[in-house]
Design brief:
The protein is an alpha/beta fold. It folds into 2 domains: 13-240, Alpha-Beta Barrel (TIM Barrel), CATH 3.20.20; 250-303, no CATH class. The protein has 12 helices and 10 strands.
């Protein structure tokens, strides 16, 4: 039996804040479609992130920069149809919030108004504080994201751990406080030293959600395709694979292909029958003597 029972009420911003206050860890995973959201919801996950990681693990892009607003909204809608209890967070894609605060507010609003999300997530520290303030002022909950920010991968010089020097760690601490002051209700901490993540968690009153940030965060998030062993282009150090579904899926596909080739599938139990009288009526109908009718079977014989 699962340790965590599925929640009976919708998880909200207040629920997550209460979990931090009580020292109860927050579990968040990604989803990009209806069936995954449905299963995550049944499992009792606290929050579902419709991440722009879908660009890599679902759409096959090299990174997250190519993901568009329309793609994000499309997948968010599917997730919203599948989740009844989880708190839903939509990832704002590259250039959806960097151009201007006004455009950021409009785009953030679409996640709630059109796609059924409860909040949005955006990346950045000090540089996005005015945008966070504008979005939250419009009544839209914002989850922050600092440390390794994939949308800034070219500026960061690759997928590298952040905050390893004293100066960089101090900057992360400052940015976390600034994001809280700007109105963020939670912050994702990605790929930073565990000691620094713990210090940030203690220094802010809002929940921190770690991904590659150690065990001292208020919660943890992973990309579901990494957790399940479906996405195998690369696996970050911080990922624990709870299953190897990619290999299992490939074997299932191979078995199907082999069965079709050997005519083992479909078998009789996978096929629909026809009333014998109706079949005889078909074969014996007027004019049937002058035409050939196929007989069901692999021999492909015919009758006149």
């Amino acid at each position: 039996m699962s340790v965590a029972e599925p929640p009976r009420e919708r998880i909200t911003v207040r629920t997550l804040a209460d979990k931090k206050a009580r020292g109860r860890p927050i579990a968040m995973l990604t989803a990009y479609d209806y069936p995954t959201a449905l299963i995550l919801d049944r499992a009792g996950v606290d929050a579902i992130l419709v991440g722009d990681s879908l660009g890599m693990v679902v759409l096959g892009y090299e990174n997250t920069l190519s993901v568009t607003m329309e793609e994000m909204l499309h997948h968010c809608k599917a997730v919203a149809r599948g989740a009844r209890f989880a708190h839903l967070v939509g990832d704002m894609p590259f250039l959806s919030y960097q151009v201007s605060a006004a455009e950021a507010v409009r785009n953030a609003g679409r996640f709630l108004q059109e796609a059924g999300m409860h909040a949005v997530k955006l990346e950045g520290g000090r540089d996005v504080v005015p945008v966070v303030a504008a979005i939250t002022a419009a009544g839209i909950p914002v989850m922050g994201h600092i440390g390794l920010t994939p949308q800034s991968i070219h500026r960061l010089g690759g997928w590298k751990v952040q905050g390893k020097s004293a100066a960089a760690a101090r900057q992360l601490l400052d940015e976390a406080r600034l994001l809280e002051d700007a109105g963020c209700y939670a912050i994702v901490l990605e790929a930073i030293p565990d000691r620094i993540a713990g210090m940030i968690t203690q220094s802010v009153s809002i929940p921190t959600i770690g991904i590659g940030a150690g065990a001292d965060c208020d919660g943890q998030v992973l990309v579901t395709h990494d957790l399940l062993g479906i996405y195998d282009r690369f696996t970050p150090k911080f990922v624990r694979r709870y299953a190897e579904l990619g290999a299992a899926m490939e074997q299932a596909f191979r078995s199907f292909i082999d069965d079709v080739a050997a005519r083992r599938f479909p078998a009789r139990e996978h096929s629909y029958g026809m009333d014998q009288g109706e079949l005889e009526a078909l074969l014996g109908q007027p004019g049937s003597r002058n035409r050939k009718w196929p007989v069901v079977g692999r021999g492909r014989k015919s009758v006149e």
